[in-house]
Amino acid sequence: MNKISRRKLITTGVAAAAGASGLAVAAKVAKAHGLIPPDSGGLYGAGETLTYAAQRVLGRHAMAREFPRGEISQNPFANEVAPLGEEFNRLQAAGFAEWRLTVDGMAARPTTFSLAEIKSYPTTSHITMIGCEEGWTYIAEWKGVPLSFILDRVGALPQVRYVVYRSIQPDWWESIDMADALHPQTVVATGMNGADLPVPFGGPLRLRIPRQLGYKSVKYITHLTLTDNLKPFGQGKGGAASDGGYAWYAGI
Amino acid sequence: MNATVPIAGRASSRIAMPAATEVKRHSATVRITHWLTTIAFLALLVTGCEIVLSHPRFYWGEIGNVNVHPWLNLHLPSSRDTVPTGYGYVLPDQNGWSRYLHFQSAWLAVGTGLFYLLWGVFSGHFRRNLLPAASDLSIKKIASSIVNRLRFKRPGPEESWSYNVLQRLSYLTVIFVLFPLMIWTGLAMSFGFDSAFPIAVRLLGGHQTARSLHFLVTILLVLFLLVHVVMVILAGFRARMRAMITGRAVPPTE
Asked: Would A159 be classed as within a structural domain?
């Protein structure tokens, strides 16, 4: 081994060691700040973690783009859903008077709300774009109760890190972190374009998360669970989509 | 080894030539970033095609869906039964892993690109190897270079260690125009990114415009890739591949 290659070897070794310890420190800092997504394991975990961490660092409180009324889509596309099932049909026949939203988990006052109660709370509205991972988009005005209001109402404990939400449709559930759960544009939507939220668009209740793709805005929600750990839910990756091979974080 | 002579005297036993035939062609940084970019680009291309198949239609502005008239319909079968394709079947859904791999490869491409950019500026690589000489930028010189290409004229020995003016211009275009446009239009499709930096998508003219431009720039990059590979083959595939792998080249003998 000659001098140059030895020097090269040492430099490369030092650089590799510095790089490895730098990565270890970065991973520790990221974990402490909640920048590691639940699907960070596996083949694509590195890219996924970089995306989630970068977006949370650059825009934790950023607001989704809002549009003027004139840009609302005249002919929005509802996408298809699986057949809604007997229970849904029964509730729909009764005008959703019996629809319930149960909130449990790490809450001081776990509560089951009726649809009428939800609708009696202060609402917010925004004209935002909904986009599908397939690439299509539409713009609509969404009206609903901020999720943060519901979380206040049930006395969410300070250690809550995720909100898990479920549809009346079996096996349709997702979760979000507190950056999105407490975000002012994240709403339990009851209305769209000035009317009650139509069934094809998720009525009577849809969790609307404008900073993420449409598959995070689960339709027909009946159940919220506040938790600090996603491991016990499904395969532990935080949602039906991520259990099915899609990214948990859908801000990209 | 005599370090003062740029033409290293590492005679290869396979080539029956006197010493001093090999020249240094590509630095280690160029070779490593070239192949990392190749891996990332191919992964981005394959997964990008998969993602397009879930909605093979393109629109301008902000809004685009099956209820909106597309400016471009690829008339391909789709992986979604909600898209009216005219085909009687639906392709399997590949979007999950495609999107994961697309973004992971994008990080690789961007990381490699940033490193290359910084190195290229500080090492003088751009100035020395990619900026065309002012004297080469006349219409006559460029035209003659194009004519030589079209006549499939073999490159002269000087092209074993230096890029010709067309190469320089096309590499500069890819590095400083097409790749940045790709990254910009890609980021502009991210709802999280647009929340933090709405100007990124506003300047482009909307979410669907960003998606259309992302697709169009892909076509330009694929065209570049095809021409690039054809040129490598015409110039001597083995020698050029060897140069991009080992860093050394042997100029052709007249």
From this structure: yes
Closest residue, chain B, to A80 (C-alpha): B82
Question: Degrees (nearest 5) of the Cα angle A52, A45, A39?
Answer: 75
Cα A71 to Cα A62, A230, B70: the distances in Å are 21, 38, 17
CA dist A165 and A146 (Å) reads 14
Contact in structure between B58 and B205 (CB atoms under 8 Å): no
Name the H helices within A94-142: 115-120
3-state secondary structure of A210: coil
Say which CATH number the domain at A174 has: 3.90.420.10
Sign of CA dihedral A37, A22, A11, B32: positive
Q: Do A212 and B192 touch (CB under 8 A)?
A: yes
| A60: closest chain B residue by CA | B196
> Which residues in B lie closer than 8 A to residue A64 (C-beta atoms)?
191, 194-195
Q: Select the residue of B66, B101, B198 nearest A44 (Cβ to Cβ).
A: B101
Cβ neighbors of B172 (< 8 A, separation 6 or more) are B130, B131
Task: Evaluate whether residue A145 is within a structural domain.
Answer: yes
What CATH number should be reported for the domain whose range is B23-249? Answer: 1.20.950.20
For residue A251, being part of any structural domain is answered with no
How many structural domains does chain A have? 1
A192 and A141 in contact (C-beta within 8 Å)?
yes
| B99–A contact, CB cutoff 8 A | yes
pLDDT at A17: 85
For residues A175 and A125, what is the distance between their CA atoms, to the nearest angstrom?
A: 22
Specify the pTM: 0.91
Q: How many CA atoms lie within 13 A of A62 on its CB side?
A: 22
CA–CA separation, A205 and A99 (whole Å): 9
| Rounded CA separation B191/A64 (Å) | 7
Report helix, strand and coil shares of chain A as percent, to nearest 5.
Answer: 35, 25, 45
Which residue range forms the structural domain that includes residue A188?
66-243
Question: Cβ–Cβ of A48/B64 closer than 8 Å?
Answer: no
pLDDT band at A3 (very low <50, low <70, confident <90, very high): low
Whether A162 is covered by a domain: the verdict is yes
Chain A residues with beta carbon closer than 8 angstroms to that of B193 = 55, 58-59, 251-252
Of A141, A124, A129, A149, which Cα lies nearest the Cα of A197? A141
CA dist A240 and A216 (Å) reads: 10
Assembly ipTM? 0.92
Contacts of residue A202, defined as CB under 8 A and 6 or more positions apart, other chains included, come to A189, A217, A218, A219, A220
pLDDT in tens, B181-225: 999 999 999 999 999 999 999 999 999 999 999 999 999 999 999
Alpha-carbon span B29 to A217, nearest angstrom: 45
